[in-house]
Amino acid sequence: MTHALIIGGGIAGPVSAMALHKAGIGATVYEAYPAPADDVGAFLVLFHNGLEALRTIDAHRPVLDASFPADRVEMLDAQGHGRERPVSGSGTGDGRPVLGPRTLRRSALYRALREEAERRGVAVEFGKRLVAADVGPDGRVTARFADGSSARGDVLLGADGVRSLTRTLIDPEAPAPRHTGQITVCGFSPLVPAEAAPAPGVYRMIRGSRAFLGCTRAPDGAVWWFANTPGGELAPERLAAGTPEQRAGWRDHVAGLFADDASPAEAVVRATGDRIVAFNAYDLAHTPVWSRGPMVVLGDAAHTAAPNAAQGASLAIEDGVVLARCLRDLPLPGEAFAAFERLRRARVEALVDRSARLNARVVPGAGRHADRPGPGAAGGPEAESGDPADRFLHYRIDWDAPVSAAG
Ligand SMILES: Cc1cc2nc3c(=O)[nH]c(=O)nc-3n(C[C@H](O)[C@H](O)[C@H](O)COP(=O)(O)OP(=O)(O)OC[C@H]3O[C@@H](n4cnc5c(N)ncnc54)[C@H](O)[C@@H]3O)c2cc1C
């Protein structure tokens, strides 16, 4: 194994490239967008598990530098009553300082990971939209791009996100992601009144009667908030930044969802100017086929969690590191990908399921995945706890442990 073609310069792409580099395997990242995307709106929370996965390849520092912490969480009900407690993971059990949770813009995370990958010698090519891939008689793979160019490698890693083409190149019957019946709206405001703003270092989570709001305070004092709201799938022109009128419309709509409550949620939203963006929330519970020949999917391309558990980016990071370990120790792609699936599938599908349960609080019935077995129903005890302090956060990757084909 000497060279990997990595499709997608988001999160799983640059992380898998860095992890392969650490394993002595070359990689080039091909990103469809012509220039680094400046995603003005979305922000992310990275929990301990994602940051610990980055630490295994010594890539956590740029992400820490680009983000800010919150080490306490305050859960409020629709009446504004609740309690504060430390965010889970304050005891990691291994005596090391806890790295998360950290909040940062998605574009800042993309940039930090990409720049760190480039600093390590990984080539990232922009304007390279994968349109096809074929496998030669020698087992090597050729990626074909929309601009007419192509590239050959030993393996092709599809880190191309929720709308992955790689997924359908591997399996034309692959299921499509499902809209969860939820719209996630993000806003930023320096003008939230003091009595409505969370204290520094606190993540305030408000379970309203009709929607869910989470907010925290950035170091400059601005409040960053997201609201998970019920709503059907939006056309592209209504997403992302939109027009000023659309942004004002989102503010009024979201504020209205909290208007009957006595919590600070409505005040937080009303204090927001035009820095407000909306996103469709999708999930993909089960991709039956993750690999074929020298091609494999990882990150959102393989499993997409609704945003409710705030774990998609962390899972994408974990995938990138684990896949590199598999390719390091098992030079035959088929064996490496089988081991990757063995090590990852149960965990990622459990997390997608958990996110679906949390989503079901916002959209009654949305937690059900009719197409797959398992609980997936609204309102189990785990969902009710709303507690990120669960087994998922304590996942650790042992970089040095050898991966075997047999399991
Ligand atoms: C509103 C919202 C809030 C979220 N909040 C959180 C959170 O708080 N915490 C968290 O952990 N996760 C969160 N997530 C989920 C997280 O954003 C994703 O799980 C994560 O970005 C997945 O990383 P990825 O690398 O697999 O895919 P992506 O980040 O989507 O990257 C895929 C890349 O592939 C590129 N690409 C696509 N097609 C092609 C092609 N044909 N050729 C070349 N390149 C291509 C894309 O342009 C993109 O750059 C949230 C998601 C949403 C929508």
TrEMBL record:
Pfam family, one: FAD_binding_3
GO molecular function per UniProt: FAD binding; monooxygenase activity
Keywords from the named record: Monooxygenase, Oxidoreductase
Signal peptide: none
Region (Disordered): 80-101, 363-388
SUPFAM superfamilies xref list: FAD/NAD(P)-binding domain (SSF51905)
FAD-binding domain: residues covered: 2-354
Domain of life: Bacteria
Name the record gives this protein: FAD-dependent oxidoreductase
Organism: Streptomyces cacaoi
